[in-house]
Model the fold of this input.
Amino acid sequence: MAEVAVLGVLAVAAASLDAVLGGRSWDAPLREAARLLGTARRTTVRSDVLLMRAGVVVLPVAAAVAAAVVPVGDRAVGVPVGVVWFNAMEVVAWASVWLVGWGTNSAFALVGGYRFLAQGLAYELPHMFALVTVALAAHSLDFREIAAAQDGLWFGVWMPVAFAVFLVSAAAMAFWGPFGHPVGGDAAGGAALELSGADRLVFFAGRYGLLAVAAAASVPLFLGGGAGPVLPGWAWSVLKAAAVLALLVWARRRLPVLRMERFMAAAWTVLIPAVVLQMLVVAIVVV
Done:
């Protein structure tokens, strides 16, 4: 599908930008991918290879299936409950990362898997409330109708709290930047510790895919979809998604990885009340 292909290109671009911001050449991810393809897979003693490989494969698959309902301009699979489908695919990522941590039968990998479960539980609720807020304003769960409802005023402008919460929780779902503890160096690499070769390549490709699809979803949800002057709708969708993705990649290089208990407490005590208040304000305006 065109949407999946576009998101794949954005994911590769994000990896290249991340490399440049990290002081490497833009083609470093491509060279690393080639190296991993030529590296033998590593297995640990008494590991559950089936569960581990299932987790590795499911991560990019979940990102691709989520991308299928995100419109690029006017192109998208017509799913009346696209927002629910998109959120469900992000939840699938929980199982994916946990299976990788569990299946390798490694203490630090298991720690990383459980860290991601805790992180996902903390950030799924504010993420869901942010999605509900835009759906409430548009009276629809269809991405295309939500984008059309922003004619004249983007939702990101008049519901900035929901937009900010969406971006923060999306980064957490992709265990990105400040939320990178599931694959953190303090746990020797966490959930991805024992991954090597093609397994490691597919796993981290899925991570970039999750980040790219979240950036693309923010366009119809908060940035007016493909609306814009001169250029066709698909071009505006790609440009807006690229801008959001660049912001998320930049944040990774500028913000430190936070301790688990601190950002989990912030999710429960700050983000959830803030986005619920935003949802109430939207509900009052809409009614």
